[in-house]
Amino acid sequence: MVCDYHLHSEFSFDSSEKIENICEKAVQVGIREIALTDHAEFPLREAAPWPDFSERDAVITACREKYGAILAIRSGVETGQPWRDPELEKELMKADPDFVIASVHELDGYSDPHMFPFTKENVKDFIYSYLAQMTQLASLCDYDVIGHVTYLFRFIPEVLTAEFPPESFQDGYETLFKAVIARGKGLEVNCSGLRMASIGKTMPSAALLKKYRELGGEIVTVGSDGHSCRSAFSGLEAGYEVLREAGFSYATSFLKRTPSFYKL
Ligand SMILES: [Zn+2]
Ligand SMILES: [Zn+2]
Known about the structure:
The protein has helices at about 20-30, 55-65, 85-95, 125-140, 160-165, 170-180, 205-215, 235-245, and strands spanning about 5, 35-40, 70-80, 100-105, 145, 185-190, 220-225, 250-255, 260-264. It is α/β, with parallel strands linked by helices and about 260 residues long. It has one domain: TIM Barrel, CATH 3.20.20. β8 and β9 form a beta hairpin.
């Protein structure tokens, strides 16, 4: 069974892919289940409007009718920085998603990570504040899995990540993973890192997933983070392999926010 639990459609501000096209390709390549996880960034702003969920639900319903038993389609959302507005987060959940990824795409007090002038002197502080922010997200917010927990590293120059790889921040990741596990929540294996020269691995890597498992982590989803049919479903097999390497035998799918487990 192959599932893609991180996909963006034209209902995301940064994608123009039709849900119908995603479903069509999913069936062609033998995917059994998909979760549409369009962006809802906090704060809500004009440049990154949220999906119209009722409009999206109508498209999903039509696709469910068309694909019936051959493709399960879950309605999901990827929140970004939801701790910034708990009331708005509650409002968002009224869309009644099957599955919620919560992510950190920006850091409080800093501008866009693309713009940040990382140096040998400041990079560790920056990574620790990213980890603290993800731990806050894991402790306070409404989610099923935390998204791409090594995302920040894609913005750090290679010469610095060679010296300070994610795996060298075991203490910060341990605190994060414990917070996730205490809430009965999970992590995702985001396969988009495999497509980026600056990362070249899943986010997170097998080493960090192994740490999560050793601490008692059981819930893990696998997703391509595709924003078009070209990138949708890419790297999923490698993602499953990374999970096996980390000692997992099962991955997770969701229906109405309830996890179930399928064998790897
Ligand atoms: Zn994301
Ligand atoms: Zn995404």
